[in-house]
Specification:
The structure is a homotetramer. Chain A has about 400 residues and is α+β, with helices and mostly antiparallel strands. In chain A, about 45% of the residues lie in helices and about 20% in strands.
């Protein structure tokens, strides 16, 4: 198969998965008035791979499988690979009005990190995690899977390790080991896209101590696995009108509280099991890749700020006012600093033993820092130029 | 009468006023599920005047009328008067969970400004505006009126004066002069509380040129005047739940597009009519008072930020983390700078010819500047401490 | 006597005091080419008290002594007293081209703090420090003394208390107790004006622990006391020309390393001796007063920035450029925020048991914070407007 | 010849050049106690080309001349060329304790810009400037010339063009055209290194109008040309001691007011003469290259800040304090943002018609912006960590 159509992707979601929303269980996520917006939004990923204009970028001919598959699944081995990822992410986000898709980006970040860390764990402990991971990656390619990543635990008291918490379940953990797999319990918070992906990859959220072995667990799981329950967040829902909310009425990310109510994970899907020393490195390596993803999808949003500010200035007849030019210049400075540093991170990437490359960590972090540190200020400049009408305007 | 109960206030709103909301006309604003929240919110003003604990602050014995009336209507003549206003505004806002009431604060700001400027216009042009204003003020006291102020015009191209605009109606203007009054046309944007006050005071929004005489108009008008139509903004409506929106589900300000469809204003309610040289001074003087009001009601919101941040830090188990202490210190710095400068503005107020005082203009503006300039940053500190749950959390 | 002339002040400095500068001992501080600038600078304090235009502000008729004396020595008991202090400090600094004098300001801050804390120590321990302090204050008034304050110790490792340091002498301490007094050893760093004042007041620099009793010491000492040696700092010396350095070639503060080489202090000049619990409160109370002094003498410097920037803009022909107006506005914002908060601190001062008032601590600290936090930025605006000539210009 | 030794370089300066300093004419710049520091400082450039460890980077084998010459003179044609330039500049600056050398960097920037613009002027006007420029470049290579650039005019009123100024001489201009050359008059301000280079390249400082033809002039001139007078700036001179000024007592840049008192320039050294339309493009193109140079030599200074701050923190015993770690992190963020964006500018350089590349303009400007915008703040962090001793410490 290797490449699926949007329709095939949607079909695949009809698999008995358990989703709750505003207190009720959702039968058909695709058809759901509210959550369906999320499904429609991300199916752009499958459209782009079919689209002649974009196919070359989004599709990659895998030499091992000897078939075309999503380029997201290519482990980056050169600056060029990283620049291609940047472009894929930046372009699809731009096409979706600055709302990132995230059904393969973050999942492949997790795969890249697992590929590096399982290699280390295997050589230290003689385990076989990397083979499992590679087999999983092949499935992703062949079935053109969409993926979510559940890393962030609910965590309780942030100053304490899992084993020191008041409740044992503040972090997801192994409650039973069987010959053919493990049983996990707990909940992960804010898992983006979980209701409408094929697989969820679970990663530890931080470094652990030696008493936290049960919490040092990583695996992949189909969303319809028995015992897996998604509670979708109502935030941003419903937007009152496409007039007032032209973006969020068409493009949405849905996050879930992802509950593992004693879910069985067969061994072939388990990538870390008790090796607590590697929980931290795995969490960090994932973040190193994922932060690069993040600084690739932020610039289109910043571009939108610039464009919106320029258009609003035009509407208000103030395009030539010096304070407006100043604010536009600052918005551009903000945007291009993030973009420039993310490009620099790709150029100065670091080669690993496995042949994979990791984007330069300092530059990736700096790009992220500048985005986050300047974000509220950037919003304020757009608002300043807009005037009060955006919050007091009458209806359509 | 002089002081009304909350019930009497609500009764007064049943006067045939014309309000549109989400495309439909509202029959009963008080009973309305959504807009009624605004009515309930502001009726606190009338409760406080009855409440033994607060009465001394909110009620003032007027020596001229020789009866108790709302202290908001006392023209400030000393630092003490200004400090009392600050206290009234800060305290009522605090009691309303940091959402200001604004049904007398802003109206009295307009009255104080009119009192100073009509005095100047009268001495220059031999008009009698100040007597009319004083008569109107007496009505406000005796009937315990609630007031909105419609100053901001829709404005069109911000770089042009009214008479240079593409449409003559971008600013409210006089379209007819009669022996007993004037007829006005146009619309004012974002008038706060208009749907549930007794009177609206109209002021010019900026300085004008000599061709803009028709736009140099100020008057008071009952909300049910024929031709007056309010189109209420749907923003912030409806909040999905009191769980996720504990403040805005109970406290709201409703703003309107305030349409003057050839409304007749009898002479006794007209305070400026064509004296374009005084449009600017009137607009500015109002703003000088109103900015002092603004910097009086902002600190409780900032206090709420501090408190929320401290509570969230406690929940997350990070109250002692140095970055948290740093953020709390910055929030306090932010808050107390605004508060301190607003107090300084009262202390260094400027005595006017009429005996009234105006809060120190530089210090008032600085307090406002620090509030506005630091606002987005302050919000970001609270969000940082909160973590992601506030935007991805499941429902109640 | 009570009020001295500048000449009498200078005469008083010829008392055998031991001062080293650039490796040599200075014979005559007044005549010294370099350090003499400092003497001339501070003698303005004595001029103002003689000057008919300024006398009313700087001279105060002490009701107890029934004679005129320097108003700096009046313990503040009202907002008006604090506002007078602000005015004296701000005005003298302005007259000295924004360089503060500091020969009575800081000393009286120390006296005010000692007056409050000796009161507490006496009631706790039955000591008589406050009487001694009052006697010393009377001497200051009667002899019109100039004063320096040596609080900051050299300190060594900043994370350790004095008794935990590698060397016992990192903080000034008592090395011997005699019937009639104590002997102190150690050094205080950067003592401003020490070479040309009559007395130095020594205060502890921080809170101590119970093992630090020997370090909990406060006293007054004449500058020519045997064993006292001042090593003056060469920083800012010599300014190359009055053309390039119009201010610092005429107005300078000289700081010393103040060495106590076993100096005997008679009991009547000792104000704290071993009561370590009060070292912290004394240090803090001094700082509370002194910070108010600091925020009183900073605004003239800020005013100078504004004026210099405006003049430079004029020279460069860019006074109307929007970026220049923006920078000037920011400089004014900066300046008036500091000034406004320092005024607010005086208005909201706190009455103490003794009848004295302390400026509002939060507001004083905020004024100081805004000054320090914005200082480098403010300098950058002036430099931006100036252009490169200020650092590459040829000589006179 | 192609490569000179430091001694040969110094010898070359003994050519009768006219330099004034503090009102006196300097006979021997090399031996001069004060200005000689600048000569010694820049001679590092010649040392590096001889040094086996650095030679590969600083020396380039020119294929046309078929001999080794300074790599600074290689016109950049690839990202690699730009990265080499960055490295040369960053490394030599680092070796000189963060003070840039600037005797070839800025001159080659001018040559690169002239190479691009003369190409355009020649094709538009049929002139032969580019051949002259190429010939001059060959001389630079063969003689291993050091160069200064005099672009910035004294300018007078910054809002007016040269021909609108009160005085005709506020910008350097052509006062006479002869068959074999031109005579120029006027002065350029703050020309760095002028007293100790072989040639000065003159460029226009801004875009001009059609009346400013006489001011549209560019040329190269030997420093001992008759009529050329340098007035060196005394700023930063003398540093009092190598103890207090360990860097500036050994490394200095000297700037001059560069006076053209009717200097004759032979045709072969003239690169623009009256083509006012190209004054702006030439000024800008130079700046595009030069800004890349600037953001290459700034990071070593920033590194020094980081190192100094870390060392001072260690001395003060506060290396683990959270505010110190915070400040160090901010210093690193500052430094690596500048460095990262300058690298990104090299990676995304723009190919020109001539085959040369220009560093990405936006990214270069952003690197410069971040450096300049954060500079004062960065200094304040270092000062905060240092404490007061750096300005009040006694002498050696
Ligand atoms: C829209 C959205 C989408 C997301 N999508 C995903 C997803 O798909 N998959 C996924 O796994 N996660 C996802 N996340 C989670 C995201 O990674 C986390 O929000 C982030 O890591 C912060 O964690 P938190 O929300 O638990 O906040 P916390 O980490 O609890 O932070 C709250 C505060 O506590 C502080 N803090 C925390 N620990 C300490 C400590 N030890 N010492 C001192 N201070 C501390 C923090 O600095 C912060 O100020 C998403 C989040 C959002 C908002
Ligand atoms: C929640 C809310 C409640 C309000 N309540 C009231 C109320 O009760 N009564 C009332 O009268 N008003 C009210 N206002 C209106 C408020 O006073 C205005 O929003 C404010 O004055 C700005 O006006 P504006 O929204 O038209 O924006 P504009 O003034 O149009 O500003 C938009 C942008 O244009 C710029 N701009 C405007 N003019 C120029 C110019 N000439 N040159 C260069 N730049 C220019 C501004 O700087 C800004 O960046 C309210 C507003 C809000 C948001
Ligand atoms: C021009 C000038 C004039 C002065 N005049 C006088 C005067 O007349 N009399 C007088 O007594 N003093 C005077 N001072 C001293 C002044 O009060 C001190 O400079 C100030 O208190 C800071 O002390 P410090 O210089 O020892 O720096 P430190 O206090 O050593 O500070 C250096 C760094 O260490 C940090 N630090 C210190 N302790 C800790 C800790 N425990 N934990 C974490 N971080 C820590 C600081 O935050 C700072 O970043 C003067 C100073 C100057 C610059
Ligand atoms: C240490 C040092 C070394 C230098 N070395 C060299 C060198 O080797 N060669 C060389 O050619 N130059 C050199 N320069 C000059 C440098 O390029 C200039 O300082 C810089 O371009 C600014 O010019 P200026 O100093 O004349 O300031 P100006 O350009 O006059 O700027 C002063 C102020 O005026 C404003 N301004 C200027 N024009 C306008 C306008 N039209 N509208 C509005 N505002 C305006 C500026 O924004 C600024 O705020 C050096 C400068 C320094 C400080």
């Amino acid at each position: 198969m290797a490449l699926r159509s949007p329709a095939e992707f949607k079909e695949g979601l009809q698999d008995g998965r358990v989703i709750y929303y505003k207190g009720k269980q959702i039968k058909d996520i695709v058809a759901h008035e509210d959550l369906g917006i999320g499904v429609e939004h991300v199916s752009l990923d499958y459209e782009l791979a079919e689209n002649p204009e974009h196919r070359d970028l989004y599709v990659w001919h895998d030499p091992d499988l000897n078939q075309p598959c999503s380029r997201y699944f290519k482990i980056p081995e050169t600056t060029e690979d990283l620049l291609n990822r940047r472009r894929m992410i930046e372009e699809s986000t731009r096409l979706a009005d600055a709302v990132v898709l995230l059904i393969k980006e973050i999942g492949s970040d997790a795969i890249f990190a697992l590929d590096l860390i399982t290699n280390k764990v295997d050589s230290k402990f003689g385990t076989e995690y990397r083979n499992r991971l590679r087999a999983f990656l092949e499935q992703c390619k062949v079935n053109d899977f969409s993926l979510a990543v559940a890393q962030t635990d609910v965590k309780g008291n942030r100053s304490l390790l899992p084993s020191d918490q008041e409740h044992a379940d503040y972090y997801v953990r192994i409650v039973e080991e069987r010959a053919d797999g493990i049983v996990v319990r707990g909940a992960k918070a804010h898992t983006t896209c979980a209701p409408y992906v094929d697989r969820i990859i679970v990663l530890p959220t931080r470094a652990f101590g030696e008493n936290d072995g049960d919490y040092a667990v990583s695996f992949a799981v189909p969303v319809n696995a028995p015992g897996l329950k998604l509670i979708a967040s109502p935030f941003g829902s419903p937007p009152i009108s496409s007039f007032h909310h032209p973006v969020s009425s068409r493009h949405r990310m849905i996050d879930t509280l992802t509950v593992f109510d004693d879910v069985f994970i067969p061994n072939e899907n388990v990538f870390l099991k008790g090796e607590w020393q590697y929980a931290g490195p795995l969490a960090n390596t994932f973040v190193e890749y994922h932060r690069f993803t993040a600084v690739s999808y932020k610039p289109p949003l910043c571009d939108l700020f610039i464009g919106a500010a320029a258009l609003l200035a035009h509407y208000n007849g103030i395009a030539k006012a010096s304070h407006v030019r100043d604010k536009l210049t600052k918005l551009i400075t903000y945007t291009e600093t993030v973009r420039g540093l993310s490009l620099a991170a790709a150029h100065d990437c670091l080669k690993q033993d496995t042949g994979a490359v990791v984007p330069d960590i300092t530059k990736t972090n700096l790009a992220k820092y500048h985005f986050a540190n300047g974000y509220h200020q950037a919003v304020s400049w757009v608002q300043d130029i807009a005037g009060g009408l955006v919050v007091t305007g009458p209806d359509e």
